[in-house]
Design goal:
- The chain is α/β, with parallel strands linked by helices.
- The chain has two domains: 202 residues, Periplasmic binding protein-like II (D-Maltodextrin-Binding Protein, domain 2, 3-Layer(aba) Sandwich), CATH 3.40.190; 96 residues, Periplasmic binding protein-like II (D-Maltodextrin-Binding Protein, domain 2), CATH 3.40.190.10.
- The chain has twelve helices and 13 strands.
- The strands form four sheets. Strands 8-7-9-6-10 form a five-stranded mixed beta sheet, with helices on both faces. It has a three-stranded parallel beta sheet with strand order 2-1-3.
- Helix 1 crosses helix 10 and helix 2 packs across helix 9.
- The radius of gyration is 20 Å and the shape is globular.
Length: 315
């Protein structure tokens, strides 16, 4: 048996042992969550595998999505119940009067647990923020959190953020685009970030998300208001299960690494090197407002608003 399978099988068996020994015979309310199967939904996956959702009285299913935007679109049209996009997409939808709200927290950036870092090519001549003036940044989606974070970092470190040019580059192509100098800087996320650093093809120029705020929530779970009105009890149970799962995963990153392997199909060695994220255990406006303010300052939002306006009242 492959080493990855051996490690995963043993650890996953231990996680599964935490699930209820006798499952309820009656059908539980179910919630389908559209999300990209990346490391930052480990808590969601753990909650399913370890039974925290079932103990809370709800069945949860993850439906893989190609992007956070695709997940949110599928939720809005009613294909799925919840979605986990980045929050900037939620802000934009809110300003367009799309009737959705944030119902549960997602991952939080901290300097100790960065989800992304601003990279340049290993042989790039840049030394200061002003060296980036007029340069091209690669972003998986235009007008996203990455573009806000890089503009904020350049601005706060003495460069001219207005001079930056943005082009759309998929996450999978950021490393090659930097190496071939098609772009000059990119906000790269794990695991591509960790693999590029291990290969020595890129070097870290700055912690761009920290330029928004030292601690900031960048993603969350969202739902339609009309769906919530009919499924409020199931959603409260979902939140209880997710809180229990996130509390455990945040303090057991090594123990839950096999779940990342299972979910993302990465190699154990790669997961062991990657930056693991932590998830907020409650919605807190202080974790979201800095992203709203930065998006407004750097031209991604039309008007200011309070983060509290985005939250489900019972979250």
């Amino acid at each position: 048996m492959h080493r990855r399978q051996v490690i995963s099988s043993v650890a996953l068996a231990a996680i599964a042992a935490r699930a209820p020994s006798v499952w309820a015979q009656s059908a539980l309310p179910s919630i389908r969550v559209a999300a990209v199967p990346t490391e930052d939904i480990t808590s969601l996956w753990y909650g399913i595998r370890a039974g925290t959702f079932r103990r809370a009285g709800v069945d949860v299913e993850i439906v893989p999505a190609s992007s956070g935007a695709a997940a949110m679109t599928a939720m809005i049209v009613g294909t799925y119940d919840l979605a986990k996009p980045t929050l900037l997409a939620v802000f934009t939808a809110y300003l367009r009067d799309v009737p959705i709200v944030i119902v549960a927290p997602g991952f939080v950036h901290t300097p100790q647990h960065p989800n992304a870092l601003m990279e340049v090519a290993a042989d790039a001549p840049f030394k200061t923020a002003s060296d980036l003036n007029g340069k091209t940044m690669g972003c998986p989606a235009l007008n996203d959190v990455a573009s806000v974070a890089m503009r904020a970092w350049v601005d706060k470190n003495g460069g001219d953020w207005r001079s930056l040019k943005a082009v759309e580059v998929p996450n999978s192509a950021l490393e090659e685009s930097l190496v071939r100098h098609r772009i000059d800087l990119a906000c790269m996320t794990s695991p591509a970030l960790d693999l590029a650093l291990a290969r020595g093809t890129t070097r870290t120029f700055g912690d761009c998300d920290s330029a928004i705020a030292p601690v900031v929530m960048l993603a969350g779970y969202v739902a339609r208001k009309d769906w919530i009105a009919q499924h409020g009890d199931a959603l409260r149970r979902f939140n209880r299960g997710l809180t229990e799962a996130a509390t455990y995963v945040n303090t057991h990153l090594n123990e839950t690494a096999p779940l990342v392997v299972e979910m993302t199909k990465m190699e154990v060695a790669d997961v062991s090197k990657m930056n693991r994220t932590v998830v907020a255990t409650r919605l807190d406006a202080k974790l979201v407002q800095p992203l709203i303010d930065a998006a407004l300052k750097y031209g991604e939002l039309a008007r200011p608003f309070s983060a509290q306006e985005l939250f489900w009242k019972d979250a």
